[in-house]
TrEMBL record:
It comes from Aquimarina hainanensis. This is ABC transporter ATP-binding protein. Keywords: ATP-binding, Nucleotide-binding, Transport. Residues 4-241 form the ABC transporter domain. PROSITE patterns: ABC_TRANSPORTER_1, ABC_TRANSPORTER_2. It comes from the Bacteria. Pfam families: ABC_tran. The keyword Transport applies. GO terms for molecular function: ATP binding.
Length: 241
């Protein structure tokens, strides 16, 4: 089932000297359960693309359909509500609330959704156990390693039972072991629960795990390859390092 469709997407940033066309006529679609990476050099437009898919930025032109609903047409208040119930986010900088415990950070999204206290408790413990943090549910972010904080962020992203999860450079601040653990957890959740993951990344470790690799250059899709063609993609990406 198709969960996301992007049609003729354009994003132009205006400044004093020249307009910058960050995204230039992108057309893409994603099926339920995909594990995909959007890759490209710095400034290629991959983060801009992810931000518009997630409703964090507004396109200059084009359409973005999530379950056949064009989110570009939503009012700001309806867009906030739509994100809350349909999209999970994992950011490079974790974005955890420092005064809350791991459990409270995960529960926070569900509280905004109006879930009951019991449901929030059960779901948060279930998710934190799934990401290997059962023993750290009462720890605050300052008492967790970077890898542990990012795992809390993944649990929080899944708390709302989203249609898909958008992860913007989720491994950028992690060492190799933490990255491997995090990606294994995400891949397991993807395969067992059918959750769609879309990454924006230049990390080869993420690219190796992805089953679909979409390459962006100068705001355009230059290739869209499945895992069977990943070796060709890997050679192409060596020039981006």
């Amino acid at each position: 089932m198709k969960v996301l469709e992007i049609k003729n997407l354009v994003k132009v940033y205006k400044n004093a000297e020249v307009d910058v066309r960050a995204i230039d006529g992108v057309n893409l679609s994603f099926e339920e359960g995909e594990f995909a990476a959007i890759v490209g050099p710095s400034g290629s437009g991959k983060t801009s693309l992810l931000n518009m898919i997630g409703g964090l930025d507004t396109p200059t032109d084009g359409e973005i359909y999530v379950n056949k609903q064009n989110i570009v047409l939503l009012s700001p208040s309806k867009l906030i509500d739509f994100r809350l119930h349909n999209i999970g986010f994992v950011f490079q900088s974790y974005n955890l609330i420092p005064v809350l415990t791991a459990k409270e950070n995960v529960e926070f999204i569900m509280e905004l959704q109006g879930k009951s206290k019991q449901e929030r408790k059960e779901r948060s413990i279930e998710l934190l156990t799934a990401v290997g943090l059962k023993e750290r549910i009462n720890s605050r972010p300052s008492n967790l390693s970077g890898g542990q904080q990012q795992r809390v962020a993944v649990a929080r992203a899944l708390a709302s039972k989203p249609k898909f999860v958008l992860a913007d450079e989720p491994t950028a601040n992690l060492d190799s072991k933490s990255t491997e653990n995090l990606l294994n957890i995400m891949e397991q959740l993807n395969r067992e629960e059918g959750i769609t993951f879309i990454f924006s990344t230049h990390d080869q470790r993420v690219i190796n795990k992805a089953r679909r690799v979409i390459t962006v250059e100068d705001g355009k899709i230059v290739s869209d390859e499945r895992k069977t063609q990943a070796k060709k993609i890997n050679r192409q990406l060596e020039s981006f390092a």
